[in-house]
C-alpha cells in the first residue's frame, strides 16, 4: 500500500501527464502472513501518456472523450490534479474516488435516475455531502440526466408493454423524476406529431393511436368466443390497467366494434 501511495503522489506531481483510471471490480486476494481475505485495490492502467503544454493536452483529451461511447465513459474516471491524500471542497479525495467508483459500477449495469443513484450510494454509508458532490459532477458530465432517462423509459414501456401516460408517469414519479421531466417525456412519446397538419386526439398523435389500436385489436380477437359485454369489459380492464383514461378507452372500443363486429 505504501508503494501504491508513493506512485500516486509521483503521478500527481506531474500535471503535464494525462491519465485516467479504468474501473475494475475488486478481486479478493490473500496477503502474505495474513489469515483473512482482503480486497485488492482497483487495477490502474495508464491509457494515455502525453507531454507538452496544457492546451495540447486538453485538446487531446477532448478528442478521446468525443470518440468514447456512453458505456465507455461510465467505465472511466479522470483523476483530479492535486495531492493523492488531499481534499476536494473539504472532502477526502480518496473517499471521493471510492464514491465515484461505486457510482460507475452501478451505472455500468443499468441506467439510474438521480434520486435512485443517490439512494444507492447513501445506502453504502457514504456521507450525503460526498454523494451529492459526485452526483453534481456526473450531472455536469452528462452521465446522469433525468430528462433523457424519463424519455427512454417512457418510449420503452410504450413500445414493449403498451403502457399509457398515467402508468408511465406513476412509475417515473416513484423513481424520483421531477414532474416537469415526467410531463415532457410523456408528451414527447405520445404527442410526437410529425407534421403541422397532423393533430392529436385525446393527447395522442395519430401514430400513437394507431399503435394502441393495433395492440388492442389483438386482445379483442383473442376474446372472440366471449359475449359482447364480456369482450368489451375485458378490453376496458386491459386499457385502464395500462394507464389509459376513459376518453381513449371509449374511442378504442368504438373503433374495435366498428371494424371487428361480433
TrEMBL record:
Q: Enumerate the spans annotated as RecX first three-helical domain.
A: 101-136
Compartments where located: Cytoplasm
- List the GO terms this entry assigns under cellular component, sorted alphabetically: cytoplasm
Kindly indicate whether the keyword Cytoplasm belongs to this entry: yes
Which keywords fit this entry according to its UniProt record?
Cytoplasm
Query: Where's the RecX third three-helical domain?
Result: 210-252
Q: Ranges for the RecX second three-helical domain? A: 145-185
Q: What GO terms describe the biological role, i.e. biological process, of this protein?
A: regulation of DNA repair
Q: Which Pfam families match?
A: RecX_HTH1 (PF21982), RecX_HTH2 (PF02631), RecX_HTH3 (PF21981)
Family, similarity comment: Belongs to the RecX family.
Supply the name of the protein: Regulatory protein RecX
Amino acid at each position: 500500500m505504501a508503494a501504491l501511495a508513493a506512485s500516486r503522489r509521483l503521478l500527481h506531481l506531474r500535471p503535464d501527464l494525462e491519465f485516467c483510471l479504468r474501473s475494475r471490480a475488486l478481486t479478493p486476494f490473500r496477503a502474505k502472513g495474513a489469515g483473512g481475505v482482503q480486497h485488492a485495490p482497483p487495477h490502474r492502467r495508464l491509457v494515455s501518456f502525453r507531454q507538452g503544454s496544457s492546451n495540447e493536452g486538453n485538446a487531446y483529451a477532448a478528442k478521446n472523450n468525443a470518440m468514447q461511447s456512453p458505456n465507455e465513459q461510465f467505465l472511466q474516471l479522470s483523476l483530479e490534479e492535486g495531492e493523492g491524500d488531499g481534499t476536494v471542497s473539504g472532502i477526502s479525495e480518496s473517499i471521493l474516488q471510492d464514491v465515484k467508483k461505486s457510482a460507475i459500477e452501478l451505472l455500468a449495469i443499468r441506467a439510474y435516475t438521480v434520486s435512485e443513484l443517490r439512494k444507492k450510494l447513501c445506502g453504502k454509508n457514504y456521507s450525503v455531502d460526498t454523494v451529492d458532490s459526485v452526483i453534481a459532477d456526473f450531472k455536469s458530465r452528462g452521465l446522469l440526466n433525468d430528462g433523457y432517462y424519463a424519455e427512454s423509459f417512457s418510449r420503452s414501456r410504450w413500445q414493449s408493454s403498451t403502457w399509457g401516460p398515467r402508468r408511465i408517469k406513476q412509475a417515473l414519479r416513484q423513481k424520483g423524476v421531477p414532474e416537469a421531466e415526467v410531463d415532457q417525456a410523456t408528451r414527447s412519446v405520445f404527442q410526437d406529431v410529425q407534421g403541422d397538419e397532423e393533430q392529436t386526439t385525446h393527447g395522442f398523435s395519430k401514430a400513437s393511436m394507431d399503435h394502441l389500436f393495433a395492440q388492442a385489436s389483438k386482445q379483442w380477437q383473442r376474446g372472440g368466443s366471449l359475449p359482447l359485454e364480456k369482450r368489451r369489459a375485458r378490453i376496458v380492464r386491459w386499457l385502464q390497467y395500462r394507464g389509459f383514461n376513459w376518453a381513449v378507452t371509449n374511442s378504442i372500443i368504438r373503433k374495435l366494434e366498428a371494424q371487428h363486429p361480433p
